[in-house]
Amino acid sequence: MPELGEVEYNRRIWDPGVGGRVDRVDLHAATRCFRGEDADCFLRWLPGSVLRSSECRGKQILFRFSGDLWLGVHLGMTGALRCLRDGEAPPGRHEHLRLHQKERSLVYSDPRQFGRLRLDRGKNAPGWWKSLPPEVLSAGFTLARVRDFLARHARAPIKAVLLDQECFPGIGNWMADEILWRCGFHPSRPAGKLDEAESRALWREIRQVSRVALRRIGKSWGDLPREWLFHSRWSDGGSCPRTGVALVRERIGGRTACWSPGRQTPPRSPASRRKAGSS
DNA sequence: CTATTTGTTTATCC
DNA sequence: AGGATAAACAAATA
User: Fold this and answer.
1) pLDDT per residue over A179-219, tens digit each?
2) Rounded CA gap, A55 and A8, in Å?
3) Average pLDDT, chain A
4) For helices A196-216 and A143-152, what crossing angle results, to 10°?
5) Cβ contacts of residue A222 below 8 Å, gap of 6+?
6) What 3 state SS string does A127-177 have?
7) Which nucleotide lies nearest residue A93, CA to C1'?
8) Nucleotides of B under 7 A from a protein CB
9) How far apart are CA A75 and CA A176, in angstroms?
10) Does the CB of A147 fall within 7 Å of any strand C atom?
């Protein structure tokens, strides 16, 4: 279930292993999570190295190990990190990587295997990491950047554009719905149709939702503010937290979008534009 | 057996 | 050429 906040939550799960040496490595080299990688490198390089630190960027996690090793983790749809004490835990059903330390094991598991593990060796962080776009809460995430991106994808539904990690790293399906709901924008509105004020509102809400998600996500998604759309969007019969109107779900841009009719009015009704004020 | 899933990459069609 | 869209990936769950 990994979007911005939960990726960060998963990253911290391995914190008890920082400073610890890797004694042994178990992995299932054939799984899809190692696609494009030489899994043998994990077995040859990691034993003997010490976990030094870790960092998140959007949905990417990078673990730094001694010996100039960099372990990249993307959780995909169902990836999860675990820290097992005592080494007594049995191998999980969908466990793909286990780093044994003296007092614990650091585990990556992923039933659907959409996630990805990669290992690089070098003095500096790997190229794929350094070329990631600016995070939405960084100074580099400017309104101009958002406006340009919307213009470049002017005909695509705003919901689909918001899911593009090239501009909005960390934003996933529920965050995109949350952001659009707060803005009052229908998910199928063409991205190029947002005016200046609306673009700014989008930029602001992207940052606000991201900020709160990062701060509030503790043990589970349940820690998000009670008034957020999140808590109503998956259950059938959910209603808008602000208007009480029944929520609608529809496939937009290949993903299920959830919105509040009335509050988020659909595009393509030119007649309604004469009275349209911004939210 | 069918349809669903908090993600990304690839192929295909404009 | 570049953007938009659908399918594919793998497995659980309803």
Assistant:
1) 999 999 999 999 999 999 999 999 999 999 999 999 887 65
2) 8
3) 91
4) 110
5) none
6) HHHHCCCCCCCCCCCCHHHHHHHHHHCCCCEHHHHHCCCCCCCCCCHHHHH
7) C11
8) 4-9
9) 18
10) no
